[in-house]
Structures are given as C-alpha cells and as structure tokens.
Design goal:
Helices cover 63% and strands 2% of the residues. With 251 residues, it is mainly α. The chain has a domain of 88 residues. A two-stranded antiparallel sheet has the order 1-2. The chain is elongated and about 90 Å long.
Length: 251
C-alpha cells in the first residue's frame, strides 16, 4: 500500500487546481502580520496570499488591517498596498471583506477595497445592508458605522435616506455627526427641521450641537419656528441675527 504522506505529496504536485494548504495560509498570515518584522517579509507574504485568490487567502490578507507597525508612514503604505492586492483578487474577495467589516473595528481600508471591486450600484447596496444590520444603540465598535456612512455617495440620498436618519439617534457622537454631515449636504426644508429637532434633543452633547450649528451657519438656514428655543439653547461663539440666521463671532 502506498504511504499516505507520499500520496498527499504527489497530489499537491500534480493537482494544478488545488489551492494552498491551511498550513501555508497560516504561515503567510503570520508573516504578513509580524508587528516588528521586516517590511519586505510582510509584503512578500501579503503578495503570496494575494496570488492564491481563495476566500481563505483573502481572510488571511485582511488580517494585515488589524495591526499597526511602529513606523506610521510604512504602515500606511502597506495598508494602501493591501487594498490594491485585494482589488487584484477580484470578486472572490467580496464576501470575506463583508464578513471582516461586520466583525472588526477598523474598516476604512476594507471598505476602500470593496469600493474598487464592486460596481457602484452593488457597492451602495452593500453599504446599505451593512448599515441596516447595525443597531443605533451601543455597539463595541461604532467606528465602522461612521466609515460606512462616510462612504455613501451623494447621488444615493433618496435611496439611503431612511437608513441614515436612524443614526441621528445613535449614542455615539461620531456616528451621529457622520449622519448629520451626510444629510445636511442636501438643502431641503425637511432636513432643516429634522436637524433642529436633533439639536434640541442633544443637550449634553456639545460636539453634536456644534456640528449642527456649523451646518446652519454654512448653509444660512433660518431657525424660523424655533427662534425662542434656539435663543435659550445657543451659546457663544454662535449667535442669532435679527432674521434668525446663525452666525459665529470672530476673535
């Protein structure tokens, strides 16, 4: 009887369509995420993972985004290169990237890769589905919601409106501000009213209130219908003109 180890060895040699072994992927991932290792060794391991083009290799390559090497500029370059490698892996990378986004805190670069891989309509749909999956209450990593909202295209406003509005009530200031920024870019009366309500409901959240006032200042929205309440709530350096327009004192 032929030795089993020999059979496995021969199968690896002669089977051209067999992907990398689990051990190979683990080894490459360990090298790609070596915090204090040589950059050249990390990059070589990243390229090896990208060359295999399997979902397992994609998942391993994505782990590069979970570490930050001591040299910030080099770390950024490697992460940007990882985005390009993921793009080169094509559609096979989509599902592992989506899984990563649902489970990890730092999703800025994975979202960039997904944007390069998917057609615009499909990318927008994925962002909406991801945001709908996140609750507006406490989550361990609210940063992901901020990144996803920030990547929504302006021309999708009508389609994503109901999804984004939910995050005006988010407990995290950064998430709430991301939603405010997206919605405020659309100069509609309904947005003016909605942001005023958020302002009055955000007592004790100075960053949220400050961002709303910034948008009112920039767009010269009046506070008509809410002047008395705004006069009681507004604080320096902001003030109201006689026409109910928000201004900022200089100096």
């Amino acid at each position: 009887m032929v030795n089993k180890k020999l059979m496995d060895f021969l199968r690896r040699i002669f089977s051209s369509d067999e992907g990398p072994s689990e051990k190979q992927i683990r080894r490459a991932m360990k090298q790609a995420t070596q915090l204090h290792g040589e950059a050249a060794a990390r990059v070589a391991a990243m390229e090896r993972l990208a060359s295999w083009k399997t979902p397992e290799a994609v998942a391993a390559l994505l782990r590069r985004f979970t570490i930050q090497t001591p040299q910030a500029s080099m770390d950024l370059e490697e992460k940007q290169y990882t985005v390009r490698l993921l793009e080169g892996m094509g559609p096979v990378a989509s599902d592992p990237i989506l899984k990563f986004i649902r489970s990890e805190p730092d999703v800025t670069f994975p979202v960039q890769a997904l944007n390069r891989i998917l057609p615009p309509d499909e990318f927008r749909k994925c962002l909406m589905e991801l945001l709908e999956d996140f609750s507006t209450g406490y989550t361990r990593w609210p940063e992901a919601k901020t990144v996803l909202i920030g990547n929504l295209p302006d021309d999708a406003f009508t389609e994503v409106f109901d999804t984004v509005v939910r995050f005006l009530e988010d407990e995290d200031d950064d998430v709430c501000i991301a939603a405010i920024d997206y919605l405020a870019r659309h100069r509609e009366e309904s947005m003016r009213e909605k942001l005023l309500h958020v302002f009055f409901e955000s007592e004790g959240r100075p960053r949220v209130r400050g961002r709303i006032l910034d948008h009112f200042l920039e767009q010269e929205w009046p506070v008509k219908g809410y002047r008395k309440r705004m006069e009681e709530a507004i604080e320096l350096p902001f003030y109201l003109t006689s026409k109910g327009i928000i201004k900022r004192k200089s100096g």
